[in-house]
Write a structure and sequence with these properties.
The complex is a heterodimer of chains A (240) and B (458). Chain A folds into two domains: 9-118, ATP-grasp fold, A domain (Dna Ligase, domain 1), CATH 3.30.1490.20; 126-238, D-amino Acid Aminotransferase, Chain A, domain 1. Chain A contains eight helices and ten strands. Chain A has helices spanning 9-18, 26-35, 52-59, 88-105, 148-152, 164-170, 188-204, 208-211; strands at 43-46, 63-69, 81-85, 111-118, 126-133, 137-144, 155-159, 214-225, 228-231, 234-238. In chain A, strand 8 (214-225) and strand 9 (228-231) form a beta hairpin. The longest helix of chain A has 18 residues, at 88-105. Chain A is globular and about 50 Å long. The model of chain B is unreliable at 251-263 (pLDDT under 50). Classes of the chains: A alpha+beta (240), B alpha/beta (458).
Chain lengths: 240, 458
């Protein structure tokens, strides 16, 4: 069983490139985010189903179990994400179910292991991303995430780096964003938590060593509660 | 940065393809240049004619006695490349290719255009076009276009457009007098935008004393970061309105990859324009209305709107539209309300929107308008004034134009005027010619103009 250490992004990227991968795995991406001061749920990477119960004991139920594999980008589609898992035994069973589902979905994919993470609901789900756009350069995206990204189109963009007023404007541009500020009793801390993550993504855009390597960092969903913001899923795509 | 003055404000012009036949393209364009009273020297290039429309013609560009600033090329597609080479050989500084049939026409045209670009870039020749109706600069009398603009005068609006005939059609409309004339001084259409682009134009417009407001119709931005950085600097003194169609790129969005890269360029551009303080018009009506408001009115100090109306319905409609567009309703000062009460019956309490139709019955049209609108303009909480007025016979009075002129001068606030009515509407509009009070044909148009004005200046 491995914990998720804070890591040097250059090392992660070099390893991924050596394996000819186009993206980092979710645990790698989350380790990177943590190193940037962006919170992720407590979790452990386990190699096999047998290690899952111990992870649940450390983390505490309920948990979410996700497949970890190099080229598995559509985890939900593959049935490779299961939650909420209420017990150690159920986590072990979930690992086996996921193994079978991924084998059926893409027999060519080799599972590296499983990510066992504390289960945190996100309502609503937010999406935040830093993209290295070929035409515009670094841009930050923010909006309503999860399955609503495509259907409701409550997302907006700004060129990075962001000034304070850019963040303010970004957080009030679409009607859905009112859910963060005032609507339905949302606490001001929710809004501050999002502002903080946006600032950190914006700061990354000013680091040439990172922007040279990365085409996109996407957090989807980001859960926002009064205690802060948590990146529940994260994707880092390398520049080709 | 390049200086595009030889292209957009030339001291001398040659026209390759100038024709004695006024129905041919080369004839129309040359005729317009002659009749537009171009202030510099004008050289028709024609192999056979000795004179065209009173100007000495030359068989080739090399025969012209000076190195010209600008050459218009009005020739069949297959002769354009040779003409561009002539321009370079003769030391011309810029060329505008009117001819169509390049990148808009398929792979062969794209190849031809790419070659022209390389030839020009290697020599430093500034290129506009191909596939353009041409360029107009009233300041130097350059009517280098197919469309002969009526009532052309100098003006503070400078257009840069990446299109074919659109500019011409729009010009005919805005200059026709069917609506209030939009004071356009320059209209530079670069067609397929082979070389000179929006960034070059911004640099020119920034340093051009006659340019007060900039309108860009663009379908692409060659270098968005550099353009936006320059635009942010220029907008401080010269507001910029962009009309860029292609907001609904379903196709680009549908191709969202596994990375979730769901943004079409337009989503990003939309965010960036707001971020950099550039107003984005949705359609040609929006575009012209925003430019009309910006060129006629002072910069707003805030976004609080005072509505004066003689129609309860238009007052409500205006309120919805302005709140939806991000503007705010002003809260009137006690002194304002007191002044408003003097034209209303006791049982009616004034509010924003301020509907004073009934005041016309009580005080007569002149006094009702004068007192009611003065109160509105004078209120310190009112940053922008929206007047939606009805002009049937009983609301009409001969001094309307005079009253509005006085208010416009006395308070120097942005105002949008919407008038509904018959004969009086036409007279009110005519009486405000030159008063710098923009008049809009619908409430929506008026509200959009104020809202875009705020986007472009605040």
């Amino acid at each position: 069983m491995q914990t998720q250490p804070s890591v040097d992004i250059a090392t992660l990227i070099a390893a991924a490139r050596a394996q000819r991968r186009s993206m980092l795995t979710e645990p790698e991406a989350k380790a990177f985010l943590r190193a940037q001061g962006i919170c992720v749920p407590p979790g452990r990477v386990v190699r096999g189903a047998d290690e899952a119960p111990a992870a649940v004991d450390v983390i505490g139920a309920p948990v979410v179990v996700k497949a970890v594999a190099h080229e598995l980008s559509h985890k939900t589609e593959a049935g490779a994400v299961m939650f909420p898992i209420d017990s150690a035994a159920a986590a072990q069973a979930a690992c086996r179910t996921i193994t079978a589902r991924v084998a059926a979905y893409r027999p060519d994919i080799m599972l590296e292991g499983f990510l066992v993470e504390a289960y945190r609901p996100a309502q609503p789900e937010w999406i935040l991303a830093l993209r290295n756009d070929p035409h515009f350069g670094p841009v930050v995206m923010f909006g309503l995430g999860g399955i609503y990204v495509e259907t409701l189109r409550q997302v907006s963009f700004r060129l990075a780096p962001l000034r304070s007023e850019d963040i303010e404007a970004l957080l009030s541009e679409r009607p859905a964003m009112r859910l963060l500020s005032g609507a339905r009793g949302a606490a001001p801390s929710n809004r501050r938590a999002v502002v903080d993550v946006l600032r950190r993504l914006s700061e990354l855009s000013m680091q040439p060593s990172i922007m040279r390597e990365i085409s996109e960092i996407e957090i989807n969903p980001l859960a926002v509660t009064e205690t802060g913001a948590l990146a529940l899923d994260a994707l880092i795509v390398l520049r080709s | 940065m390049r200086n595009i003055t030889p292209l957009v404000a030339p001291r001398s012009i040659a026209v390759i393809g100038a024709s004695t036949n006024p129905t041919k393209s080369g004839g129309v364009l040359f005729d317009n240049l002659v009749k537009g009273n171009f202030q510099g020297s004008l050289y028709p290039i024609n192999r056979t004619a000795t004179q065209i429309m009173g100007k000495t013609a030359y068989p080739t560009l090399a025969d012209v006695p000076e190195k010209v600033d600008l050459v218009y090329i009005v020739l069949p597609q297959q002769h354009v490349e040779n003409a561009v080479e002539q321009c370079i050989a003769a030391g011309a500084r810029a060329a505008c290719i009117i001819t169509a049939g390049f990148s808009e026409a398929g792979p062969k045209g794209r190849g031809d255009e790419e070659r022209l670009r390389e030839i020009a870039r290697a020599s430093g020749l500034l290129l506009a076009g191909p596939n353009t109706i041409g360029m107009v600069n009233a300041e130097v009398g350059m009517m280098g276009s197919f469309v002969n603009f009526p009532r052309w005068k100098d003006g503070g609006v400078s257009f840069f457009t990446q299109t074919g005939i659109f500019t011409g059609a729009v010009m005919l409309h805005v200059m026709s007098g069917a609506t209030q004339r939009l004071p356009v001084g320059k209209s530079i259409d670069v067609g397929n935008k082979i070389d000179v682009d929006e960034l070059d134009f911004l640099h020119f417009a920034a340093d051009d004393p006659a340019t007060k407001v900039i309108g860009l119709y663009i379908e692409s931005i060659r270098n968005p970061r550099a353009f936006l950085d320059k635009a942010r600097e220029v907008r401080k003194s010269k507001p910029i309105v962009v009309l860029k169609p292609g907001r609904t790129k379903d196709g680009a969005r549908a191709s969202a990859s596994h990375t979730g890269s769901l943004a079409s360029d337009d989503d990003i551009l939309d965010g960036a324009l707001g971020q950099y303080g550039i107003a984005r018009a949705e359609d040609e009506d929006d575009f012209l209305n925003a430019l009309r408001a910006l060129v006629m009115l002072p910069k707003p100090r805030g976004k609080r709107v005072g509505i004066g109306t003689t129609s309860g319905a238009l007052g409500v409609i205006s309120t919805d539209l302005l709140v939806e567009s991000g503007l705010e309703l002003a809260t009137f000062e006690p002194a304002t309300l007191a002044a408003m009460r003097t034209i209303l019956p006791d049982w009616l309490e004034p509010a924003n929107p301020f509907d004073f139709w009934i005041g016309i019955d009580i005080k007569g049209p002149r006094e009702a308008h004068e007192i009611g609108l003065t109160a509105l303009f004078a209120d310190p909480n009112v940053d922008l004034v929206l007047c939606t007025l009805l002009a049937p016979g009983n609301a009409d009075f001969p001094e309307f134009g005079e009253v509005l002129r006085r208010l416009r001068r006395a308070y120097d606030k942005p105002v949008a005027l919407v008038i509904y009515g018959g004969e009086a509407q036409r007279r009110w509009t005519a009486d405000l010619e030159g008063a710098d009070v923009p008049i809009f044909h619908t409430t929506r148009a008026g509200v959009r103009a104020l809202s875009l004005m705020v986007d472009a200046t605040m």
